[in-house]
Amino acid sequence: MAPALRRAAIVGGNRIPFARSGKRYAQASTQDMLTAAIDGLVARYGLQGERVGEVAAGAVLKHSRDLNLTREAVLSTALAPTTPAYDVQQACGTGLEAAVLVANKIALGQVDSAIAGGTDSASDAPIAVDEGLRRVLLDLGHARTPQQKLKAISRLRPGNLVPAPPRNSEPRTGLSMGEHMAITAAERRIPRQAQDELALASHRNLTAAYDRGFFDDLVTPYLGLKRDDNLRPDSTLEKLSSLQPVFGRSGRAADLAEPTMTAGNSTPLTDGAAVVLLASDEWAEQRRLPVLAHLVDAETAAVDYVHGGDGLLMAGAHAVPRLLERNGLTLQDFDLYEIHEAFAATVLAVLDVWNDEEYCRERLGLPAALGTIDRSKLNVAGSSLATGHPFAATGARILASTAKLLSERGGGRALISICAAGGQGVTAIVEA
Amino acid sequence: MPTQPTDRYAQFVGTAPGTWLSSQLGLPRPAELRRAQPGKRVLDGPALVVGTGLAPLRADLADLLRAAGTDVLDELPEEAADHGGRLAAIVVDATGLREVAELEQVRAAVVPAFRRLAPSGRLLVVAAAVDEAATVAAAAVQQGLEGFVRSAAKEARAGATANLVRVRAGASAADWASTVEFFCSGRSAYVDGQVVTVGPAPAAAPAQERERPVAVVTGAAQGIGAAIAEALARGGAHVVCVDIAAQGEALAQVANRVGGTALHLDITSASAPAALAEHLRTRHGGADVIVHNAGITRDKLLVNTDADRWASVLEVNLAAELRIDDALLETEGALHAGARFVCLSSLSGIAGNRGQVNYSTSKAGVIGAVRAMAPLLAKRGMTANAVAPGFIETAMTARMPVATREMGRRANSLQQGGRPEDVAETVAWLADPRSRGVNGQVVRVCGQSLLGA
Ligand SMILES: NC(=O)c1ccc[n+]([C@@H]2O[C@H](COP(=O)([O-])OP(=O)(O)OC[C@H]3O[C@@H](n4cnc5c(N)ncnc54)[C@H](O)[C@@H]3O)[C@@H](O)[C@H]2O)c1
């Protein structure tokens, strides 16, 4: 018989400061960073030698040698070596999806405690060999006679020796994520200034949060870096508006509107890792650990961005109404909103469609528009435009910060939405 | 681990040519000090335990050392005896001495034994409290013992030390046991020429100790603080390692090494006292030991000391500490019954130091605070003591100019710098549940520095 469900508690989180790729963490691997993030969490909550129920984490840019990335990281930490672990990968949704997976196991009573998170390095990204070279190497390995070996090698062409770096483009469309977003931004006519304002707010909110010590128990410095190095405390609207657009300068987006997306209102390639500690209330209480909030429910959606009319990063807009309906809530029933800032335009486009009667009816199958939200409740401690966005790490960063924000205000409800490559979106409700 | 500066001179004189050269030139010859190791006995050879006068504590002293696995002798062994007749310790009970003429008994007992003191041996004189002496002569005699011990400490060779423990009326063997053990053991390697008074444990002390006491160490990310965290954890404590957020990486490593927890807290922030009190109450059900170790220097000559340099040093080293103490003492549940405060002072706070007016003021202030707190805390079964390190080999002293560093290293009876663990072991002794009778004391860990002696 299935045991009664219990809500998973969010005890706390830890991340290393995020670094722009090729800089402070250029020499660190995803495993190094995940290990550091977990070790900081272990130190904060005194989990040395503890067998945690499970650790679920992943990386989007993953080396083939890291086939057991999370378990290998766990073995390098101060956790008990008997702690099981597995890898999760759902593009930028990885961290939140991992948290949902372990929260469900906690809810079912299958584990009492778990760590979820993610790590990514754009500096140390895997570089694949050319497909022709790969075939030659495989055949060479299978060859038995010298003649067979020679035959395999003779197929090599100089062009085969050029390595293939990882692609930041959708395999089915060949377009980069930024170009996809630029199309949506152009379709929705998201103004440049609104994007710059959102970026500015992100930097201001993150700076203020750091200054008031909000991250003192959420971040542990790494390799000498103490704050996210993408953070621009002195950024201004003038500076942001002076930047040249980098996406949407050609193709369909350019046909529709002037380009609006710049390096200032788009997230940079970033390195980093983040983890969050979840548990049953009893597990936390036995160890006198805090319960910041509970993970109440989650919903993941995917859109047909290849043939359908939805933008690549718009799946969150689809997941949220389903989540609201299941929980008997309206879009306005939240004290905080955390919408991942892949691009400023992503956040604005999602808010825009929710307030669009036609979109809500036709695309989301709703009777009416979801309406607007109080913008002062959005990303109040800054988000990815300021912190940077090491893909798989973002979910745990957002979940831990959200839980702490709720706990600080003495209770409340928050909505989290994270868009991901492949036209997916992971969303969740957190309550304290 | 942070790299500690190496004392190349000490390494050189440890070699055969080095020994020859330094003795020809009359240069200092620092000995390698005996230090405590887990599983090692308090003493690694026999102890001569002598009574002078009535010697009311002699039997208890002998029992204590015997229980610690020491071979106790009541008279000097033959030269040919085990260890070549060498003594690991000479312990003299002088508590019963009242008349000046009786001091001869101390001379007579110590003189033949002193030359037999083994390397890193101990001369420990147990005396009475001067302010409890019944007559002027008794007070003079008991005070006189301090001069005896301090001079003997300067003459002791090869890492041997001499210290004096005063036992107040009413203190039982259980009250001074941890202190006598400390001074005999390798844990006091760099504590030399010191006088410590032990009284009866306060009546308000808790009947039962916690199985895993909780200790807070500020500035635990590196140096002396990290060593203190390690020493307290070895003693069975859960250590809450506190340091500023910017030190979080090193702090996490210390916390994970000692099986404790890391807490990012700038002790000078306005919210720090309440945040720490709340953390200790909710996460640990109260702390048993508070070690104020976080400290900074901003050295400048007095004439160049501006308001900023002054304020920052006084804030971290003194003001923050006082605010935190107040909050912990006022917050119900922040401290466990019988909590112990140990505060890091400095030799600069006792002797003064050129270029350190701000630092010396703050560290002398720490001593004042500890002395004022002690009687108040005693009523609650708690204690406060100060530890004043001399020249300790840390990242801080590694940054000193070579000449200053060499001076600091050699200008003490042991002719070398101490190690962070020497300070840490002293803190651990003061935090030991058995050391409840030690209150309001200032203990220097300085190898009997020539400064401020
Ligand atoms: N090293 C010596 O020779 C020596 C001699 C005498 C006294 N002391 C005293 O011993 C103590 C430790 O000295 P050390 O040599 O290990 O110093 P250190 O500089 O290596 O370490 C001091 C630690 O305190 C932390 N700290 C500073 N300000 C803080 C704040 N506001 N909040 C929280 N943490 C803070 C620092 O980050 C650092 O980790 C200090 O109080 C020092 O004055 C040292």
TrEMBL record, chain A:
Recorded GO CC terms: cytosol
Q: Pfam families recorded for this chain? A: Thiolase_C (PF02803), Thiolase_N (PF00108)
Keywords attached to this entry: Acyltransferase, Transferase
Is Cell cycle one of the keywords? no
| Positions annotated as active site in the UniProt record | C92, H389, C419
Q: Which residues form the Thiolase N-terminal domain?
A: 9-281
Q: Where is the Thiolase C-terminal domain?
A: 291-431
Which is an annotated GO molecular function term of this record? acyltransferase activity, transferring groups other than amino-acyl groups
Similarity section: Belongs to the thiolase-like superfamily. Thiolase family.
Instruction: Please report the name of this protein according to its UniProt entry.
Output: Acetyl-CoA C-acetyltransferase
TrEMBL record, chain B:
Q: Where is the Ketoreductase domain?
A: 213-390
A Pfam family this chain is assigned to: adh_short_C2
Tell me the domain of life.
Answer: Bacteria
What Gene3D superfamilies does UniProt report for this protein, alphabetically? NAD(P)-binding Rossmann-like Domain (3.40.50.720)
Q: Which SMART domains match?
A: PKS_KR
In alphabetical order, the GO MF annotations are:
oxidoreductase activity, acting on the CH-OH group of donors, NAD or NADP as acceptor
**Similarity comment:** Belongs to the short-chain dehydrogenases/reductases (SDR) family.
This protein is called what?
3-oxoacyl-[acyl-carrier protein] reductase
- Origin species: Kineococcus xinjiangensis
